[in-house]
Amino acid sequence: MPEKLANTTIIMEFLLVGFPDDWMLQRMYAALFFLIYLTALMGNLLIVTLTTTDGRLHSPMYFFLKNLSLIDICYISVTVPKSIMNSLTKSHSISFLGCASQIFFFIFFAGTEYALLIVMSYDRYTAICHPLHYETTMNRGACVQMVTASWLCGCVYGSIHAAGTFSVNFCGPKIVHQFFCDIPSLLTLACPGEQILEYAFIIASFSFAFLCFLFMIASYVHIFSAVLRIPSAQGKFRTVSTCMPHLTVVVLFLFSGLVTYLGTNYKSTSSPNLLMSVLYSMLPPSLNPVIYSLRNEDMKLALGKLLG
Protein backbone atom coordinates (compact mmCIF):
# COMPACT_ATOMS: atom_id res chain seq x y z
CA MET A 1 0.00 0.00 0.00
CA PRO A 2 1.41 3.46 -0.86
CA GLU A 3 2.73 5.40 2.12
CA LYS A 4 0.25 8.26 1.54
CA LEU A 5 -2.73 5.93 1.73
CA ALA A 6 -1.26 4.13 4.72
CA ASN A 7 -0.98 7.37 6.68
CA THR A 8 -4.48 8.56 5.74
CA THR A 9 -6.83 8.58 8.72
CA ILE A 10 -10.58 8.01 8.43
CA ILE A 11 -11.88 10.57 10.91
CA MET A 12 -15.41 10.26 12.30
CA GLU A 13 -14.98 13.04 14.85
CA PHE A 14 -12.58 15.79 15.87
CA LEU A 15 -11.40 16.91 19.29
CA LEU A 16 -11.65 20.64 20.00
CA VAL A 17 -8.95 21.55 22.52
CA GLY A 18 -8.98 25.33 22.33
CA PHE A 19 -9.50 25.68 26.09
CA PRO A 20 -6.67 25.13 28.61
CA ASP A 21 -6.63 21.81 30.45
CA ASP A 22 -7.33 23.40 33.83
CA TRP A 23 -10.96 22.71 34.82
CA MET A 24 -11.39 26.01 36.67
CA LEU A 25 -10.09 27.97 33.68
CA GLN A 26 -12.49 26.09 31.42
CA ARG A 27 -15.42 27.05 33.65
CA MET A 28 -14.23 30.66 33.72
CA TYR A 29 -14.02 30.79 29.93
CA ALA A 30 -17.45 29.13 29.64
CA ALA A 31 -18.97 31.76 31.95
CA LEU A 32 -17.28 34.57 30.00
CA PHE A 33 -18.45 33.13 26.67
CA PHE A 34 -21.99 32.81 28.00
CA LEU A 35 -22.05 36.48 29.08
CA ILE A 36 -20.70 37.63 25.72
CA TYR A 37 -23.19 35.42 23.88
CA LEU A 38 -26.10 36.67 25.97
CA THR A 39 -25.04 40.28 25.38
CA ALA A 40 -24.81 39.73 21.63
CA LEU A 41 -28.23 38.04 21.50
CA MET A 42 -29.96 40.73 23.55
CA GLY A 43 -28.36 43.62 21.65
CA ASN A 44 -29.08 42.25 18.20
CA LEU A 45 -32.60 41.08 19.06
CA LEU A 46 -33.31 44.57 20.42
CA ILE A 47 -32.23 46.14 17.11
CA VAL A 48 -34.36 43.66 15.14
CA THR A 49 -37.34 44.48 17.36
CA LEU A 50 -36.89 48.26 17.13
CA THR A 51 -36.36 48.34 13.36
CA THR A 52 -39.42 46.13 12.87
CA THR A 53 -41.91 47.82 15.19
CA ASP A 54 -41.00 51.52 14.90
CA GLY A 55 -42.23 53.19 11.71
CA ARG A 56 -39.49 55.81 11.80
CA LEU A 57 -36.91 53.04 11.37
CA HIS A 58 -38.29 51.64 8.12
CA SER A 59 -35.74 53.37 5.90
CA PRO A 60 -33.21 51.38 3.79
CA MET A 61 -30.38 52.02 6.27
CA TYR A 62 -32.31 50.40 9.13
CA PHE A 63 -33.54 47.59 6.87
CA PHE A 64 -29.90 46.71 6.22
CA LEU A 65 -29.10 47.12 9.91
CA LYS A 66 -31.85 44.66 10.83
CA ASN A 67 -30.37 42.09 8.45
CA LEU A 68 -26.90 42.74 9.89
CA SER A 69 -28.24 41.98 13.36
CA LEU A 70 -29.90 38.77 12.13
CA ILE A 71 -26.60 37.71 10.56
CA ASP A 72 -24.70 38.47 13.79
CA ILE A 73 -27.13 36.35 15.82
CA CYS A 74 -26.56 33.41 13.47
CA TYR A 75 -22.81 34.08 13.21
CA ILE A 76 -22.13 33.88 16.95
CA SER A 77 -24.60 31.00 17.44
CA VAL A 78 -22.63 28.72 15.11
CA THR A 79 -19.67 28.35 17.48
CA VAL A 80 -20.33 29.61 21.00
CA PRO A 81 -23.16 27.32 22.30
CA LYS A 82 -21.28 24.17 21.26
CA SER A 83 -18.10 25.48 22.90
CA ILE A 84 -19.89 26.26 26.17
CA MET A 85 -21.58 22.85 26.22
CA ASN A 86 -18.26 21.05 25.56
CA SER A 87 -16.57 22.98 28.35
CA LEU A 88 -19.28 22.28 30.92
CA THR A 89 -19.57 18.57 30.05
CA LYS A 90 -15.78 18.06 29.83
CA SER A 91 -16.31 16.75 26.31
CA HIS A 92 -14.13 18.00 23.47
CA SER A 93 -15.58 15.97 20.61
CA ILE A 94 -17.46 17.20 17.57
CA SER A 95 -18.66 14.88 14.83
CA PHE A 96 -17.29 15.05 11.30
CA LEU A 97 -20.68 16.31 10.06
CA GLY A 98 -20.88 18.80 12.92
CA CYS A 99 -17.42 20.13 12.07
CA ALA A 100 -18.32 20.45 8.39
CA SER A 101 -21.51 22.27 9.35
CA GLN A 102 -19.59 24.70 11.55
CA ILE A 103 -17.17 25.45 8.70
CA PHE A 104 -20.00 26.02 6.22
CA PHE A 105 -22.23 28.18 8.42
CA PHE A 106 -19.37 30.19 9.94
CA ILE A 107 -18.02 31.12 6.48
CA PHE A 108 -21.58 31.53 5.18
CA PHE A 109 -22.50 34.17 7.76
CA ALA A 110 -19.09 35.86 7.68
CA GLY A 111 -19.30 36.16 3.89
CA THR A 112 -22.89 37.40 4.07
CA GLU A 113 -21.91 40.06 6.62
CA TYR A 114 -19.05 41.26 4.45
CA ALA A 115 -21.31 41.47 1.39
CA LEU A 116 -23.94 43.35 3.38
CA LEU A 117 -21.35 45.84 4.66
CA ILE A 118 -20.49 46.57 1.02
CA VAL A 119 -24.19 47.12 0.27
CA MET A 120 -24.44 49.46 3.26
CA SER A 121 -21.50 51.49 1.97
CA TYR A 122 -23.36 51.88 -1.35
CA ASP A 123 -26.44 52.99 0.58
CA ARG A 124 -24.42 55.74 2.34
CA TYR A 125 -22.83 56.74 -1.01
CA THR A 126 -26.23 57.11 -2.67
CA ALA A 127 -27.74 58.99 0.28
CA ILE A 128 -24.91 61.54 0.47
CA CYS A 129 -23.69 61.87 -3.11
CA HIS A 130 -27.04 61.50 -4.91
CA PRO A 131 -29.71 62.55 -2.37
CA LEU A 132 -32.28 63.54 -5.02
CA HIS A 133 -32.23 60.02 -6.51
CA TYR A 134 -31.96 58.17 -3.20
CA GLU A 135 -35.60 57.12 -2.85
CA THR A 136 -35.71 55.95 -6.46
CA THR A 137 -32.42 54.06 -6.34
CA MET A 138 -32.87 52.54 -2.89
CA ASN A 139 -36.50 51.53 -3.24
CA ARG A 140 -37.96 48.58 -1.37
CA GLY A 141 -37.48 46.14 -4.24
CA ALA A 142 -33.86 47.13 -4.79
CA CYS A 143 -33.06 46.79 -1.08
CA VAL A 144 -34.58 43.31 -0.92
CA GLN A 145 -32.61 42.27 -4.00
CA MET A 146 -29.35 43.56 -2.51
CA VAL A 147 -29.93 41.74 0.78
CA THR A 148 -30.91 38.55 -1.06
CA ALA A 149 -27.75 38.79 -3.17
CA SER A 150 -25.68 39.20 0.02
CA TRP A 151 -27.16 36.03 1.53
CA LEU A 152 -26.64 34.11 -1.73
CA CYS A 153 -23.00 35.26 -1.97
CA GLY A 154 -22.40 34.09 1.60
CA CYS A 155 -24.00 30.72 0.84
CA VAL A 156 -21.82 30.20 -2.24
CA TYR A 157 -18.75 31.35 -0.32
CA GLY A 158 -19.46 28.92 2.53
CA SER A 159 -20.20 26.02 0.18
CA ILE A 160 -16.96 26.48 -1.77
CA HIS A 161 -14.76 26.60 1.33
CA ALA A 162 -16.52 23.72 3.09
CA ALA A 163 -16.14 21.58 -0.04
CA GLY A 164 -12.49 22.61 -0.45
CA THR A 165 -11.62 21.95 3.19
CA PHE A 166 -13.22 18.51 3.35
CA SER A 167 -11.96 17.38 -0.05
CA VAL A 168 -8.61 16.65 1.64
CA ASN A 169 -7.45 13.43 3.30
CA PHE A 170 -6.46 13.82 6.94
CA CYS A 171 -3.23 12.38 8.32
CA GLY A 172 -2.12 12.23 11.92
CA PRO A 173 -4.09 13.23 15.03
CA LYS A 174 -7.67 14.47 14.97
CA ILE A 175 -6.95 17.25 17.49
CA VAL A 176 -8.06 20.75 16.47
CA HIS A 177 -6.26 23.43 18.47
CA GLN A 178 -9.27 25.71 18.52
CA PHE A 179 -12.59 25.95 20.38
CA PHE A 180 -14.49 25.50 17.10
CA CYS A 181 -13.78 24.06 13.66
CA ASP A 182 -12.11 26.58 11.40
CA ILE A 183 -10.31 26.17 8.10
CA PRO A 184 -6.68 26.96 9.07
CA SER A 185 -6.80 24.56 12.04
CA LEU A 186 -8.20 21.73 9.94
CA LEU A 187 -5.71 22.27 7.12
CA THR A 188 -2.87 21.60 9.59
CA LEU A 189 -4.27 18.05 9.91
CA ALA A 190 -4.35 17.42 6.15
CA CYS A 191 -1.90 15.09 4.42
CA PRO A 192 1.03 16.86 2.71
CA GLY A 193 0.00 18.33 -0.64
CA GLU A 194 -3.72 17.84 0.00
CA GLN A 195 -4.40 21.51 0.83
CA ILE A 196 -3.72 22.86 -2.67
CA LEU A 197 -7.40 23.06 -3.74
CA GLU A 198 -8.51 24.90 -0.60
CA TYR A 199 -5.50 27.22 -0.76
CA ALA A 200 -6.53 28.06 -4.33
CA PHE A 201 -10.08 28.82 -3.11
CA ILE A 202 -8.67 31.00 -0.31
CA ILE A 203 -6.48 33.00 -2.70
CA ALA A 204 -9.35 33.45 -5.17
CA SER A 205 -11.83 34.50 -2.48
CA PHE A 206 -9.37 36.93 -0.87
CA SER A 207 -8.68 38.48 -4.28
CA PHE A 208 -12.41 38.95 -4.88
CA ALA A 209 -12.90 40.29 -1.33
CA PHE A 210 -10.07 42.77 -1.91
CA LEU A 211 -11.75 44.03 -5.10
CA CYS A 212 -14.98 44.51 -3.12
CA PHE A 213 -12.99 46.36 -0.46
CA LEU A 214 -11.65 48.71 -3.15
CA PHE A 215 -15.27 49.39 -4.16
CA MET A 216 -16.01 50.29 -0.55
CA ILE A 217 -12.97 52.59 -0.43
CA ALA A 218 -14.07 54.29 -3.67
CA SER A 219 -17.54 54.87 -2.17
CA TYR A 220 -16.07 56.60 0.85
CA VAL A 221 -13.70 58.70 -1.26
CA HIS A 222 -16.77 60.08 -3.06
CA ILE A 223 -18.62 60.47 0.24
CA PHE A 224 -15.89 62.52 1.92
CA SER A 225 -15.44 64.57 -1.25
CA ALA A 226 -19.15 65.42 -1.07
CA VAL A 227 -18.86 66.21 2.64
CA LEU A 228 -16.07 68.71 1.99
CA ARG A 229 -18.38 70.61 -0.35
CA ILE A 230 -20.98 71.13 2.40
CA PRO A 231 -20.66 74.80 3.49
CA SER A 232 -21.62 74.54 7.18
CA ALA A 233 -19.58 72.73 9.83
CA GLN A 234 -22.78 71.43 11.43
CA GLY A 235 -23.91 69.95 8.12
CA LYS A 236 -20.55 68.24 7.66
CA PHE A 237 -20.68 66.78 11.15
CA ARG A 238 -24.26 65.55 10.76
CA THR A 239 -23.45 63.90 7.42
CA VAL A 240 -20.27 62.23 8.66
CA SER A 241 -22.05 60.99 11.78
CA THR A 242 -24.40 58.89 9.61
CA CYS A 243 -21.34 57.06 8.20
CA MET A 244 -19.27 56.57 11.35
CA PRO A 245 -21.16 53.50 12.71
CA HIS A 246 -20.75 51.70 9.38
CA LEU A 247 -17.07 52.64 9.11
CA THR A 248 -16.44 51.48 12.69
CA VAL A 249 -18.15 48.13 12.07
CA VAL A 250 -16.17 47.59 8.85
CA VAL A 251 -12.85 48.35 10.57
CA LEU A 252 -13.74 46.08 13.52
CA PHE A 253 -14.79 43.22 11.24
CA LEU A 254 -11.75 43.38 8.94
CA PHE A 255 -9.18 44.20 11.62
CA SER A 256 -10.29 41.38 13.95
CA GLY A 257 -10.21 38.85 11.09
CA LEU A 258 -6.79 39.91 9.81
CA VAL A 259 -5.20 40.00 13.28
CA THR A 260 -6.57 36.55 14.08
CA TYR A 261 -5.55 34.79 10.87
CA LEU A 262 -2.12 36.42 10.74
CA GLY A 263 -1.30 36.18 14.44
CA THR A 264 -2.61 32.76 15.52
CA ASN A 265 -0.52 29.60 15.77
CA TYR A 266 -2.92 26.86 14.63
CA LYS A 267 -0.66 24.00 15.76
CA SER A 268 -0.72 24.77 19.47
CA THR A 269 -3.18 25.57 22.26
CA SER A 270 -2.57 28.70 24.32
CA SER A 271 -4.51 31.52 25.95
CA PRO A 272 -3.27 34.13 23.40
CA ASN A 273 -4.50 31.91 20.55
CA LEU A 274 -7.87 31.55 22.27
CA LEU A 275 -8.18 35.30 22.75
CA MET A 276 -7.26 35.86 19.11
CA SER A 277 -10.07 33.54 18.03
CA VAL A 278 -12.54 35.27 20.34
CA LEU A 279 -11.53 38.56 18.74
CA TYR A 280 -13.08 37.80 15.36
CA SER A 281 -15.69 35.15 16.23
CA MET A 282 -17.42 36.95 19.13
CA LEU A 283 -16.37 40.59 19.29
CA PRO A 284 -18.05 41.98 16.12
CA PRO A 285 -21.50 40.46 16.82
CA SER A 286 -21.34 41.74 20.42
CA LEU A 287 -20.20 45.30 19.64
CA ASN A 288 -22.16 46.00 16.45
CA PRO A 289 -25.44 46.78 18.31
CA VAL A 290 -23.58 49.13 20.67
CA ILE A 291 -21.81 50.89 17.79
CA TYR A 292 -25.04 51.48 15.86
CA SER A 293 -27.11 52.51 18.89
CA LEU A 294 -24.70 54.57 20.98
CA ARG A 295 -25.01 57.87 19.10
CA ASN A 296 -28.08 57.20 16.98
CA GLU A 297 -30.90 59.49 18.10
CA ASP A 298 -33.55 57.61 16.11
CA MET A 299 -32.60 54.36 17.85
CA LYS A 300 -32.68 56.06 21.25
CA LEU A 301 -36.14 57.52 20.55
CA ALA A 302 -37.40 54.13 19.37
CA LEU A 303 -36.02 52.48 22.49
CA GLY A 304 -37.64 55.10 24.71
CA LYS A 305 -40.95 54.55 22.94
CA LEU A 306 -40.65 50.77 23.36
CA LEU A 307 -39.93 51.16 27.10
CA GLY A 308 -42.79 53.62 27.51
TrEMBL record:
Q: Which CDD domains match?
A: 7tmA_OR14-like
Which locations, inside or outside the cell, does it occupy?
Cell membrane
What is the protein's major site of localization?
A: membrane
User: Could you tell me the keywords of this UniProt record?
Assistant: Cell membrane, G-protein coupled receptor, Membrane, Olfaction, Receptor, Sensory transduction, Transducer, Transmembrane, Transmembrane helix
Instruction: List the record's Gene Ontology CC terms alphabetically.
Output: plasma membrane
Listed InterPro entries: GPCR_Rhodpsn (IPR000276), GPCR_Rhodpsn_7TM (IPR017452), Olfact_rcpt (IPR000725), Olfactory_GPCR (IPR050516)
Domain G-protein coupled receptors family 1 profile residue range list: 43-292
Q: How does it sit in the membrane?
A: Multi-pass membrane protein
Q: Does the keyword Translocase apply?
A: no
Any idea what job this protein has? Odorant receptor.
Under the heading PANTHER family, the entry gives: OLFACTORY RECEPTOR
Protein known as? Olfactory receptor
Source organism of the structure? Loxodonta africana (African elephant)
Origin organism lineage: Eukaryota, Metazoa, Chordata, Craniata, Vertebrata
